[in-house]
Design goal:
The structure holds two protein chains of two kinds. Chain A is an alpha/beta fold. Chain A has eight helices and 18 strands. In chain A, a hairpin with a 2-residue loop joins strand 11 and strand 12. In chain A, 49% of the residues are buried. Chain B contains four helices and no strands. The two termini of chain B are 16 Å apart. Classes of the chains: A alpha/beta, B mainly alpha. At the A-B interface, helix 1, helix 5 and helix 6 of A face helix 2 of B.
């Protein structure tokens, strides 16, 4: 656990594809299965990117509108991070293309980071540290995924869960009284709990990679699709998330009553409610965006902030605990304060 | 912890199961209501009620509700030792 002083979040925007799909219309499960799924996961509707609209496009739109609203000199942005598991290409890094599209300076550091559900918290940490060491005034953190492009539509264990979104967050240097506390963890033993088997160097893409296999009723996919071991991921989250939040609260001398909102990665309602109960939090302090936006991977924390807390983020000073957890396995918690930050309404493209 | 209470909780968590349907020797994986989603619901329930976590291997190895109860009992004993 560690603390970074003198960095604050000053702007936030999130964009989603216009196209809505309802899990009531999911064609590869029975009506009963769909009812149980919606009740248990809390996911009723999702946003799906059309072919060709990528995570970088969603983040770009969010960033363009945010920078237009905030009206500062782009040359102040010294760091650009793009956190995704659905980059535009394997080579080159998408962040560098985004640096050019956003007309940022060539001296702006631009990096891709491959992380999923813990990505927003990790991104805040990496950005804060880089701003402290590079002398840059501002950093642009772009976090998002088009997970719909890597799941099989015929896999009822993944397809009705995931949804697409991209976010842009501006962090900036400020007085040392502003502190962000972090706790970051990983466990590579669980590397295959969420995995796309083929396409990397360990198991290269071959013609057989795209051959569909029937795994069980309602689960058909090929080796370029995402596989999720639901029980392993569920147990990992039950085991690690609440204790990590408790430990970070203790580390910075706070109690749950000192935090206005606990914003968790939107995994599914069953899991998130189990975590909320472990921390004995009242429902009013734990916002959800699952119903209409599903699990948007790395963008789930920012989309929850924008869709559920925008008014308060814009008008008040808030104490937040943010917690991301998932693929890796990787998990992280951040405790921070925001003060009347710029927060745009949800952008739909 | 009692087997009768465990069965009541198990029944309450399963969709479309009438009270009294589940017996200690019920092979739960053969129930119409059993599926992968119910497995997660059961894990969450046992974690909340008994403070222990069932693994995928536990669920795979257990045949009957009574088997499941024994696993929960032994995990809880380890926890309390």
């Amino acid at each position: 656990m560690f603390t970074v002083s003198g960095i604050k979040l000053s702007g936030l925007a999130v964009s989603v594809p216009k196209q809505k799909v309802s899990n009531h219309d999911y064609p590869f499960a029975t009506v009963k299965e769909k009812e149980l799924f919606i009740k248990t996961t809390g996911i009723e509707n999702r946003r799906i990117a059309p072919e060709g609209l990528t995570a970088s496009d969603l983040c770009f739109e969010a960033a363009e509108k945010l920078l237009l609203e905030m009206q500062f000199d782009k040359s102040e942005i010294g760091v650009l991070l793009f956190i995704t598991q659905t980059p535009d290409w394997i080579i080159p890094p998408t962040a560098i293309r985004l640096q050019h599209r956003l007309a940022l300076q060539k001296s702006c550091i631009a990096l891709d980071i491959n992380l999923g559900c813990s990505g927003y918290v990790y991104g805040l940490s990496v950005m804060s540290s880089l701003l402290k060491t590079t002398g840059a005034k501002k950093g642009l953190l772009l976090v998002g995924d088009v997970s719909s492009s890597v799941v099989s539509e015929k896999d009822k264990s993944t397809s009705p869960i995931f949804s697409d979104a991209g976010s842009a967050t501006v962090l900036e240097v400020c007085g040392d009284e502003n502190k962000i506390h972090f706790s970051l963890h990983n466990d590579g033993e669980g590397y295959n709990a969420i995995i796309i088997p083929d396409g990397g160097m360990k198991s290269k893409f071959t013609p057989s990679s795209v051959e569909f296999q029937k795994i069980s009723d309602g689960i058909e996919r090929n080796k370029t699709h995402l596989i999720m071991n639901g029980v392993d991921v569920f147990n990992f989250s039950l085991r690690e998330v609440a204790p990590d939040a408790k430990q970070l609260l203790a580390f910075c001398g706070k109690e749950t009553k000192d935090v206005d909102y606990f914003v968790f990665h939107q995994a599914n309602l069953l899991m998130n409610e189990a975590i909320r109960k472990k921390l004995a939090l009242v429902p009013e302090k734990v916002p959800y965006s699952l119903k209409d936006f599903g699990n948007t991977s790395s963008a789930s924390i920012p989309i929850t902030l924008v869709t559920q807390l925008r008014y308060r983020l814009t008008n008040e000073k808030l104490s937040l605990l943010l917690s991301g957890f998932g693929v890796g396995l990787s998990w992280g918690t951040a405790i921070l304060e925001t003060d009347k930050m710029t927060c745009l309404p949800l952008i739909q493209i | 912890m009692q087997l009768e209470d465990f069965i009541k909780i198990f029944e309450a968590e399963l969709a479309d199961i009438a009270p009294g349907t589940i017996k200690p020797d019920t092979v739960f994986k053969l129930l119409d209501a059993w599926n992968s989603m119910q497995a997660l619901i059961l894990i969450a329930m046992i974690d909340s009620e008994y403070g222990v976590t069932l693994t995928a291997e536990n669920l795979y190895d257990c045949l009957t509700v009574s088997d499941l109860f024994s696993v929960v009992q032994s995990k809880k004993a380890v926890l309390n030792s």
